Structures are given as structure tokens and as C-alpha cells.
Amino acid sequence: SSSSSSGGGSEPSDLEEGEQPGAVNQLVLEMLVYLGRALVYLFPVYLAGYLGLSLSWVLLGLFLWMSWRRKRKGKQGRLTNALELLEDEKVTIAKQISQQELPPWWVTFPDIERVEWINKILLQAWPYFGMYMEKIFRDSIEPAIRGSNLHLKGFTFTKVNLGEKALRITGVKAYTKEVDRRQVILDFQLSYAGDCEVNVEVKKLCKAGVKGIQLHGTLRVILEPLIRDMPLVGAVTMFFIRRP
Question: In this protein, which residues make up the domain named SMP-LTD (predicted)?
Fold first, then answer.
């Protein structure tokens, strides 16, 4: 019985000895990262002194860097909020209301209706809409850009992918009583925080791309004049009320 108790008592010590190297490695890694960041931050000061530059250039660079960090942090926060809204709308709305942030349009204005059934259709049709847009980019936009300038003859879209996150309509307001009887005005509250990616290339020398686009705004759709023949609408006009 004594041998079994001694054997059981040795297990925790062995476990602690096995865990210590991992903790030490983690501490060393954190110290190396800290030293690396310190060297990166101090290198411009050293370079300015080595080249005999004025300290004002270093201060100006530091100010620009801090402004860029602040702007990037704000943009990242807005992107995170938008993605949270797309993932779990109810939880995000409750959190925003408690924090007195901007709620969705259908919370602020009771005459704006929710249209979740349209969002379900958009989500189901989004992959096919992406295929259609890729065809538009390659068959229409790409030739037009190539023909606009001699230096852009080698312009091509190397990747056009709208991703899996579909555009959402957070609310719709219909104007029928305050307008002419032969027209219908609809305001669509649009919210898009997608994972799309569009890459371009010019003669394999210049490459560029766009990804993670955000768009939030109010799209006004005017149906007029209403006519007696199908499709019952003579023309459709669409524009953003304010810059999205």
C-alpha cells in the first residue's frame, strides 16, 4: 500500500515538470515579441539621428502613425459591429440599444417594415448573383477599360468573387399616400459587410485588389408611371438619398 501511495504522489511532480518548459517558452516568446516591437518603434529615431535629420520629422511621422492606427481601429470596430449584426441580429440590436448606439431603422421608425423573407431570398440567390456579376465584369467592364487607354490593353480581372455574405435589407418604407397616384416610392435600408474579393492585373506588372467591402445607406426606388399593361410600371429609377 505504501508503494502505491508513493507512486501516486510522484505523478503531480512529473506533470509540473512537463508544464514548466512550455511556460518558459511562452514567456521567452512574449519577451522576444516585445523587444522586436521596441526595436521597430525606435528604429526611425535611430535612423533620423544617424542621417542628421531634425527631430520634428520623427514627431511628424509618429503623429501620422498614431492617426493611422486610430483610424484603422475605428474602421475595424465598425466592421466587427457590422459582421455581428449579420451573424446575430437580435443580440447585436439589444446590445446597441443598451449602449445607446444607432439601432436599425425599423427600431427607430415604426413605419419602416422588416423584410426577412427578402433577405432569405437574397441569401439563397447570392451565389448565382455572384456568377452573374463575374460575367458582367469580364464581358462588359473589362473590354471597356481595355479600350479606354493604350496602357490598359493588358488589363484583366484575375479574380471576381462576391463571397458568401449576402447583402441585407434591414428595413423598407413605402410611400403611397403622400405621392402621386401613378407612382410608388420605396426606401430600402441596405447593409452590406461582405467577404467579397476583386483582383485586377495589368500586363503582369501591376496588381491590385479590393476585399472586405462595407456599404450602408438608403436606396430610393421610384416606380412611375403606373400603367394598365404588364409589367404595370413604365420606368424604374434608383438612387441613394445620401452618400452611402
Answer: 111-244
- Using DSSP, state whether 122 is helix, strand or coil: helix
Q: Is residue 127 domain-shared with residue 233, that is, in the same domain? A: yes
pLDDT tens sequence across 183-195 = 999 999 999 988 8
Based on the fold, state whether residues 112 and 46 are members of the same structural domain.
no
What's the rounded Cα separation, in Å, for the pair 82 and 199?
A: 23
CA–CA gap between residue 189 and residue 132 (Å, rounded): 23
Put the strands of the sheet holding 184-193 in their side by side order. Answer: 168-175, 184-193, 214-223, 236-240
Peptide bond into 231 cis (omega under 30): yes
* pLDDT bracket for residue 58 (50, 70, 90): low
Query: Rounded to whole angstroms, how far apart are CA atoms 205 and 223?
Result: 46
Whether pLDDT at 107 is above 50: yes
What is the DSSP code (8-state) at residue 177?
S
User: What are the phi and psi torsion angles at 44 (to 5°)?
Assistant: -60, -35
Assigned C-alpha cell, 162? 462576391
* Cα–Cα distance for residue pair 207/201, rounded to 1 Å: 5
Confidence (pTM): 0.53
Mean pLDDT of the chain: 78
Contact 123, 164 (CB under 8 A): no
9 and 92 housed in the same domain: yes
- Among the three residues 70, 97, 124, which one is the final residue of a domain in this structure? 97
